[in-house]
Amino acid sequence: MTLRTYKGIAPKLAEGVYVDASSVLVGDIELAKDVSIWPLVAARGDVNFIKIGARSNIQDGSVLHLSRPSKGKPAGSPLIIGEDVTVGHKVMLHGCTLGNRILVGMGAIVMDDVMVEDDVIIGAGSLVPPGKTLQSGYLYVGSPAKAARPLNDHEKSFLTESALNYVQLKNEYLAEG
């Protein structure tokens, strides 16, 4: 794996974390227990910080970044990802906050200052524009993303199941050495 220090700050990895050797993590990044980072992920915690909660997974080719502090926004926009979050292949997350038990579909883009509440599915290819709040319990699709319908019980339970499937898979990868 490629972990790079930036301005004296190195990524912090908790117990049981898997980071694929082809991924690059730079700077102020904190990965909680059982997080998995899959091939070709680029995560830059250089002008702000990235924090990823337990059992979350970031799939192949995703890009994680943030916005620097500025006069108009003194804290900038860090990237905060909650627990049991599945981030699909080739997703772009930029300076947003994701709650717990979320699925971000393949190729989705979630922009600065977006707040995604718990128990949400963002459909593949969706664009969530800056500053939008996605309310808990819905499927969001489109460009710009809009609530399509409430999640059913099966979909809600799948959010945790998906995260746990990736914990199992990363454990198999770690066992391979």
What does this protein look like?
The chain is mainly beta and 177 residues long. It has one domain (2-176): UDP N-Acetylglucosamine Acyltransferase, domain 1. 14% of the residues lie in helices and 38% in strands. It has one helix spanning 153-176; strands at residues 2-4, 12-13, 18-19, 24-31, 36-37, 42-52, 57-58, 63-65, 79-81, 86-87, 92-94, 97-98, 102-104, 109-110, 115-116, 120-122, 127-128, 133-134, 138-142, 145-150. The strands form 2 sheets. Strands 1, 2, 4, 6, 8, 9, 11, 12, 14, 15, 17 and 18 form a 12-stranded parallel sheet that branches. It has an 8-stranded mixed sheet with strand order 3-5-7-10-13-16-19-20. β19 (138-142) and β20 form a beta hairpin. It is globular and about 45 Å long. It starts with a strand and ends with a helix.
Brief description of this entry?
The chain is built from one helix and 20 strands.
Estimate percent helicity.
10-25%
Total DSSP helices: 1
Q: What would CATH call the class?
A: Mainly Beta
H/E series, N to C? EEEEEEEEEEEEEEEEEEEEH
CATH superfamily membership, which one?
Hexapeptide repeat proteins
Biggest beta-sheet profile: 12 strands, parallel
Radius of gyration: 15 Å
Mean pLDDT: 97
Estimate nothing, just give the exact number of structural domains. 1
